[in-house]
Task: structure prediction
Amino acid sequence: MAFTTKLPPQNYIDGQWVDPASGESIEMICPSDGHVIGKIARGNAKDIEIAVAAARRAFEGEWGRTTAMGLLETATFLRNCRSQTYLTPWASH
Result:
């Protein structure tokens, strides 16, 4: 059974999907049969700079004042969203 992903070949930075600075992507290959599962962004140093700047802004703002319980609740929420958004397309094929 061939699985594919519907993820965009972009980086998730500062709350949004953005194209990589290089404009390039990398094919994801299924190790069991060699078919292309999808593509992921080919990030580089510029993407890292942008992501680090976004993380610093977040830490200096509300995110940096979040309690441990708040972080746990957010992580749980994101895990649940991720499993619905990303894993469901794979499981449905």
